[in-house]
Amino acid sequence: MPLTFPVLYGSVRTERQGIVLANHVAETLRGRGHDAPLIDPLERRLPLLDRMYKEYKGDAPPVLEELAAIYKAADGFVIVSGEYNHGIPPALKNLLDHFLEEYFWRPSAIVSYSAGGFGGVRAAMQLRMTLGELGMPPIPTIFAVPKVGQAFGENGAPADERFAQRFDKFARELEWYAEALKAKRAEGVPY
Question: Is 136 helix (H, G, I), strand (E, B) or coil?
């Protein structure tokens, strides 16, 4: 069954390396038959958080209205995050914090990366806490990509031959949670 998984990317750096990973994730999900729009804060140019989307009471900036519509149609979210000083990139935190109810009762999946060997797992641990608080519980598996600058060839394909197999397992887990929560949302939510 086709599902909708917005892919939220967190870096706005000039020479960001994770954008290749974020594009690959979105393309791979589309290849599985899903709708997977890439939400890039560099393209969206969100304002720094002053008010949440809901606090605009119908007078939100167009970029927030567009994102709200995408998020409300979502079955789950994929968060692609680098690790900045052992934490979450500020652009990603800003992107996430504009919304709340739009995330409720939908799973999230964390794809983390770093230039070093840990694959951004320290940021992923912080994301687990943040995503749970936002109402989109993360699936158990984290898809970590170490040495992201070397993870893809010039053609955009993963350099690691096991990448596709690892991602397939990760995606199947996300699909399972998304289908289960979608069925439960159709019955109603706890509050």
Answer: coil
For the residues of 36-98, what is the DSSP string, one character each? --EE-HHHH-PPPSSS-GGGGTT---HHHHHHHHHHHT-S-EEEEE--BTTB--HHHHHHHHT
- The answer to whether 179 touches 76, Cβ cutoff 8 Å, is no
Cβ atoms within 10 A of the Cβ of 49, count?
12
Question: Distance between CA atoms of 25 and 31, rounded to whole angstroms?
Answer: 10
5 and 177 Cβ atoms separated by less than 8 Å? no
- Mean pLDDT, rounded, for 54-81: 96
Which two three-digit tokens encode residue 105?
């009762």
Could you please state the CATH topology (level 3) that the domain comprising 7-187 is classified under: Rossmann fold (3.40.50)
Measured distance CA(85)–CA(54) in Å, rounded: 31
Q: Is the pLDDT of residue 156 over 90?
A: no
d(CA 36, CA 28): 9
Whole-angstrom distance, CA of residue 1 vs CA of residue 154: 33
Q: Is 103 left (phi over 0), alpha (psi -120 to 50) or beta?
A: alpha
132: left (phi over 0), alpha (psi -120 to 50) or beta: alpha
Name the band, by pLDDT with cuts 50, 70 and 90, for residue 3. very high
Closest to 74 measured CA to CA, from 42, 98, 108, 124: 108
